[in-house]
Design goal:
Radius of gyration: 31 Å
Structural class: little secondary structure
Helix content: under 10%
Strand content: under 5%
Distance between the termini: 96 Å
Length: 46
């Protein structure tokens, strides 16, 4: 127990700064636009 807290540790006490125990990192992939190839119909000459 630190000398500055004779009554006990305060709630949510972090001695090394504000560092959460679990850090969630969510990476969002960039949107990928897929364009289908154009459909070309070729009619035989008549």
């Amino acid at each position: 127990m630190p000398d500055g807290f004779p009554w006990g540790m305060p709630f949510n006490f972090m001695s090394k700064g504000c560092q959460p125990a679990v850090q969630h990192v969510v990476t969002v992939p960039p949107p990928v636009m897929t364009v289908p190839p154009p459909v070309m119909t070729v009619l035989p000459p008549m």
